[in-house]
Amino acid sequence: MAKEALIEFKAVDLSFGETKVLNQIDLDLESGYFYTLLGPSGSGKSTILKLISGQLTADGGDILFEGERINDLPAEKRRVNTVFQNYSLFPNMNVYDNVAFGPRLKGRPEAEIEAKVKEMLALVKLSGYENRGIAELSGGQQQRIAIARALANDPELLLLDESLSALDYQLRKNMQHELRQIQKRLGITFVFVTHDQEEALAMSDWIFVMNDGVIQQKGSPEDIYDEPINHFVADFIGESNIVRGIMKRDYLVHFVGKDFENVDAGMRPNEPVEVVLRPEDLDLTTPEAGKLVVTIQDQSFRGDYYEVTAQDDDLNLWQVQVTNPVTTGARVGLTFDPEDIHIMRFNESEDDFEARLEAYEEDPEVVGNAAVQSAAAEEQA
Fold it and tell me: 235: number of CA atoms within 13 Å, CB side?
């Protein structure tokens, strides 16, 4: 990702009344990629789309399009188009007129418009539907027409706001694939908004994970899934087992009462951390061969795997994915490889840490955190 930025946000803020919706947002969107803004409802992802399209104006910061500030540029002058969740098709027009609407507004010649409509309908695999009424179309077909209408305007940037959420599961999966193929074929930039992490992982070149108006993490789907930066991302992206631990030194972490080798480094000795183990990275074995011993609590059939819930002797619950059913109540071993252990810094401010360090100096037995003890020992030395 080394192209010149198509869209840039620089310290962008936005509030609705006293509610902070976006907080110092910085992002770069380069030309020709499929981006996804991923997060729960109210995280600010759709607000970013509305700022790009000109439906909203930022309270602070700058929004640039190809290097030019567009904060005050009217929406109709921006080279972007949006596909909404409800598609916003014109029910009094047939398919042809819906797709032709934008080019006609621009005063394009009718022969050019006809060629563009045919091209766009072929692109979304609806050739021959020109004379159909909108009410005659299925939900998936309406979604395709909304995409065709947006693309008929030759935008440099296509914004898609939860545009697959109204479709049933199988159709949604099919449209994920087709949207990705359309983006690759046209080579223009897509910015897709969703709260569905599987959808984001399947479609995107680059993901921005959002919560509470802040970008929590950005990266490729593999980066986001394999190396979550904090508890929110680890918990939101897929299923995760998250337990607290102590990073005793580089490549050695302590959790659930034991030391485990891992592949992470660069933290303070005895720093408090959170340990992430994905369910698909865990294997069940005999109690003697396991790194942990757990008791099977429950299991549920998920089609191509069983989701198993197990509990260790410290009452931590573990989610495990296995291909064969297990016996509830059985004592089994849990095993995993060093590279399956993902370490995240524990979310603790420096002020909190200093306060606990002070408390430890007053009464070491009350504050037993290993990182605090280590810091106190360093100060005494």
Answer: 10
